[in-house]
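As noted in the main text, all predictions were made from sequence alone. Below is one such record, for TonB dependent receptor family protein.
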Amino acid sequence: MRYLWTVFIMCMGIWGKAQTITVTGRVMEHSSKTPVEFATVWIESVGTGAITDKDGYFRLEQIPCDESKLTVSCLGYAIQELNLRSYKDKPLTIYLKEATLALDEVTVTAKRKTDDATTAYTIDRTVLDHLQSISVADAVSMLPGERTGNTYKLTEAQSIALRGESGSELGNPAFGTAVEIDGVRLSGNAVQRMSGTDLRHIGSSHIESIEVITGVPSVEYGDIANGMVKVKTFQGRTPFLIEAGVRPHTQLYSFSKGFDLGKQRGMLNTSYERARSVSDLASPYTSYTRNALTLKYSNTFLTARRKQIELNANLSGNIGGLNSESDPDAFNNTYQKSHDNAVRGSISALYLANSSWLSSLHAGVSFSYTDRLEEERTRQSMASTHPSIHSMEEGYFVGEKYEDNPNAPITLLPVGYWYQTAFTDSKPLTYNAYLKARWAHRFGQIHNNLLAGAELKGDGNTGEGVYYADRLTTSDWREYRYSTLPFTHNLALYAEDEIKVQFPTSRLNVKFGLRSDMTFIKESEYGTVSSLSPRLNTSYTFAEHQEGWIQGITLRAGWGKAVKLPSFDILYPRTTYRDRLAFAASTTAEGTSYYAYYTHPARLQYNKDLKWQYNIMRELGIDAQFKGVRVSVSFYYNTMKNPYSSSGRTIYTPMNYKFTDPSTLEGCPIPAENRLYRIDRNTGIVTVSDKTGTYPSQQLDYTVMRDWETTSVNFNTSSSTRMGVEWVLDFDRIQILNTSIRIDGKYYRYKGVDEELYQSSSSLHSADGQPYQYVGYYIGGTGNYNGMITRLLNTNLTLTTHIPKIRMIFSLRVEGTFLNSRQNLSEYSGGIRSYVLDSRDSNLPSASGGSIYEGEHYVATYPLYYVSRDDVHTQKPFMETYLWAAEHDTRLYNELSKLVQKSNSGYMFKEWKYSPYFSANLNVTKEIGNHVAVSFYANNFFDTMRKIKSYHTGTDVSLFGSGYVPPFNYGITLKLKL
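Prediction:
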């Protein structure tokens, strides 16, 4: 058998080698017939290609002779695709046409990548110009079923959430959506919150294309949960481009140029963009400014063996941010500022081996650094002295005047008015290094493309955290430097194989791979954490005919696991401080008060059971080409496992401290104006002395307060599900009208219920004046609902009229929402969590029962268990004890009633649902000769203010200012090519 396998492999190798060809050719400009240098000739199925030389020539060796597509692209030209089998015996001459509106085929919508088994879309420069995008986030509105965003100005943060909606969803889809620009990952892991990447600092006018992967991604992409957005900027020779865009809230100006350095020195692309956006036209002083710069170098070298090496180096960044300092409507000398400075860089080399054992080798390094210094100046006032607590050690501390002891654990803020300037300094840094290789070969009718690679990624933050300009006027604050947190490192190894089988009348494509991530967390109890991410995509194409009603059908399926690494606020829990008032003396005639506090730092709590969040992605799809229409439908069902909690779980532990009531001073003979107070740091005993020495010192009586120590631990919440259907119908152009019709839409459903146990107590005191003695254990938190289900049905109709002769394109997009509903849930797999009340004043469940989802009822949520301070290890069933106490123990009933959480309305669990609503967008682009282009847009140009039905309240609500449709806004852009 061993010899048979050897012979088989040798034969397959000979057979595969016999089926390869060498592809040569030349790329020319269509009108001038001049050679096009630095054009990319690429074969995606093989994972290799070539770059044309100064005379436009290229050469590809060891290329399988099959139905593979050869793609030729160059900045400023329309992409050309050829079938290799049709040109296997002759050199190619490929003519590229300039990408203008004079072409017959121009698209102003997102295009699905039909070569991928997974769901992915491309948005090119023509679409972005027609849309007049000012942010990468704007482009997402072009995806099936998506709507024009309400954030049409840069003064508000802009992020992307693929196949997800609101930030209140478990798993935070925006945090799980990865963004890359020219191969540089924009990571949000090294910040103190879980949120999507703010994209405002990325210039929009120098973007060549955007690729959006919403399906199961390749194993090449890690630290991801919901999808991938890949931004590619200009690369190659371009004329001098000048762009000026104006809209009511935003002005944008940009300059860019792609230089041919000549004599094989390569290409240099430079660009500068300035954008300024104001938050309110009535008071245009609070503004966001973007100054985006890019510098990009590319060149191709030949090795001694005539193999090409493509070198790319880029450096880009932004200087800008938000500023309200000049706003005359704000209080005098108060303002808010925030830097949004960024610098990104990368160097990569692609070795196009095109040999029998290696197709290509790609290596590179990159980094991304962001300066997000926030500054806020506010006006403060105090009628009497007030304590400012900075103690970081356990003990009792008395407030001191700042001028007496600037470093005191507690300082007394001055009386009167002053300004306080607070800073939040965050400087996240991400760096990355990778090496990946492709090997493509053909065995008979089987085409094999193997990818293997390794990646090292690091995340850290060099910021100083929160600090103040003047400690004299600083509020309660403890130093917490982000720069002291250790960097996290992630090493990934991955391998992926793509197999294509050509049958006589059909073809099969199977791509499967495995990614292994090892996360190293220094100085942390988590240590090293490993995870595996298997992924599979497959497609089967059949019934391909040039004529007939059915011209091709592709069935797609995908399954995969995508792991999202945690952010720093999950990995590095802060020390929390609980400050209890231990003593307060009466205010003197000068307005001076004396305070003493007991500070108890809560130790850091690492969760040994913390798991990395991951998404199980499942997808089915069909792409069909019929006579006159192209149809694409994708169904997905994703399960988010172990989502990170947006807030930590509080843990209660009994503790005691001493409290001295001011009434104990009533018998003190020392005059109030001569009293000096001192508190023993360890015992908490307050001593009052006479600064004149007339009276002896006196220790004051105290009360031992039996309280709770609280600390927070980060954890994983319950799983959530997202499912949906996305569809696109592209009809062939109506030639007589030069008009094409596109219908796209999506149905989205989310359900998430948190069944984790949360501890909570009451801020009220017990009848004896002591802190509340009970802690309740609630399913999903103390809110009346612990989950929600949302449903959304959007459909868009786009009419595009393109007249090549006059180089003009007009599009009308009608966006309709036919279903928009949300329902709060209170569920628990082990029983009932919330109960109907007979009235708002009642605390006990209604004797008649009833469902919280039917009718309008006030609802109460009860803990599952509770513990007392005297016995924290015995969890008592709350409902059973509470019902008993209502009949037999009034005191206990009143105390336990403080743990009952009641709703503040009677329709909390009704389905929030609205009648259908619509808006319409108008876009026009006109080219004037070869050098001038003008674009105009008007979003929601009907400025619809009609009322829609709100079914949960039974009233009509206006769409104006509702956020359901974009506000009316418009703009015009002028573009010059010199």
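The chain has five helices and 59 strands. The radius of gyration is 33 Å. These features were considered when defining construct boundaries for the mutagenesis experiments described in Section 2.9.
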